[in-house]
Amino acid sequence: MKRREFIGLVAGGIAWPVVVQAQQQATPVIGFLSSRSPGESAGLVTAFRQGLRESGFVEGQNLGIAFRWAEGHYDKLPALASELANLPVALIYAAGGPPSAFAAKGATSTIPVVFSAASDPVEIGLVPSLSQPGGNVTGMGIFNASLGTKRLELMKELMPNAGVIGYLLNPANRMSEIESKSVVSAGRSLGIDVRILNAKSESELDSTFEPLKGHIGGLVVSGEPFFDSQRERIVGLAAKYAVPTIYAWREYVRAGGLISYGTDLPESYRQAAIYAGRILKGEKPANLPVVQPTKFYMAVNSKVAKSLGIEVPPRLLGLADEVVE
After folding, report:
1. Which residues pair with 322 in a beta bridge?
2. Tens-level pLDDT at each residue, the chain (325 residues)
């Protein structure tokens, strides 16, 4: 008799029972591994499901999804990845940047892994090449190190008299060391003293912001999954201490942040899900080049600028894809 195991897969509040058999699995199951939290990831999960639908896969019909959430605790990711690999699943979709991607890669060398938004995947050692990733890992890349430099330039243009600019990083993310070196070097060429600030928990975020007022001319927040999951908190702290701040994604600006420059995060989830669908249909991850973003978005909140006494240069307003009044 074949061993049967029932896995409760939650989709929009509905538990879909999926039968996993030791020798055969009629309905493929994707393991969704995220460093983030489910509540604040609703829009990203919607984009993920959209990409799957475009590939011909609909949850509850011809696909199951097993969700695992680390809720900002990156140290939990390896165990969660192992859980998914042992179910087993047909593919692991690693959401929430490099921490999830490395956990999934470490859990299996045979199950395909598709990452949704991994920063600088070659530089951090996630894949050997963008065009030929090889092995069982591929996905959607974003480039935070180079974008961090661009955000510094924008902050310098917005606050031309700022001699010191803070740069917030999460030391638990292995990308932080590369990003730190990149932005400090860029700061020197811009005549800016870049102060690296580290925070990997909610309490560290609170304690990091408190001494900033009056000591820095502006702040750049890294495009990092834990920070994005704490979007409302970070935007609130920047407002509380009146720190002009630039972020990675426009969702921060819509939440009350000053300015953002970066990729379209939901789009990266959709694109990566399309790759997942192609792999479920038989393509090999080794043959699928890492997708690179082609569009970058700038958003400006003019109301927040006025509250901070900042006059946004007309050039920046002209470049903005979105201006929140």
Report:
1. 299
2. 333 333 444 444 444 444 444 434 579 999 999 999 999 899 999 999 999 999 999 999 999 999 999 999 999 999 999 999 999 999 999 999 999 999 999 999 999 999 998 988 999 999 999 999 999 999 999 887 779 999 999 999 999 999 999 999 999 998 899 999 999 999 999 999 999 999 999 999 999 998 897 889 999 999 999 999 999 999 999 999 999 999 999 999 999 999 999 999 999 999 999 999 999 999 999 999 999 988 899 999 999 999 999 999 999 999 999 999 8
The answer to whether the beta carbons of residues 135 and 290 sit under 8 Å apart is: no
Question: Of 200, 192, 98, nearest to 143 (Cα)?
Answer: 98
Q: Which two tokens stand for residue 90?
A: 């047909």
Whether the upstream peptide bond of residue 88 has omega within 30° of 0, thus cis, is yes
**CATH (residue range 144-263+297-324):** 3.40.50.2300
* 3 state DSSP class of 308: coil
DSSP states of 60-119: TTTBEEEEEE-TT-GGGHHHHHHHHHHS--SEEEEESSHHHHHHHHHH-SSS-EEEEEEE
Sign of CA dihedral 116, 320, 164, 150: positive
Torsion sign (Cα): 312, 316, 319, 321? negative
Alpha carbon distance 51, 58 (integer Å): 10
Where in the chain are all domains bearing CATH 3.40.50.2300? 4-142+265-287, 144-263+297-324
- Beta-bridged to residue 165, according to DSSP, are 194, 218
CATH level 2 (architecture), domain 4-142+265-287 = 3-Layer(aba) Sandwich (3.40)
* Amino acid making up residue 239: A
Q: Compute the distance between CA of residue 110 and CA of residue 182 in angstroms, rounded to an integer.
A: 34
DSSP-derived 3-state class of residue 228: helix
Please give the single-letter amino acid code of residue 113. Answer: V
CB 291 within 8 A of CB 117: no
